[in-house]
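Hi U.,

Before I forget, here's the chain from the pilot set. I'm dumping it here mostly so it's searchable later in email.
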Amino acid sequence: MEYMSSLIGIPVLLFIAIALWSFVWKGIALWTSARLDSKGWFITLLLINTLGILDILYIYIFSKRSYKESEPDEIVVEIEKE
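Structure:
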């Protein structure tokens, strides 16, 4: 039973916590990239595992930039009264 207390030198509970942390952030980042139709980011986030670091950066920095760039300009329509 001693082998179950650590996994390659990492305690099992710490490993589970890290896996959950990464899973949650990756899910949010993949959802965001899919909603913004960012295929390149989706593939990158899917293939590269950085324990949530790249996912967090995408959510709070890179997706905001692409969202702001894709917003249409404000259109003002004037209605004339007769």
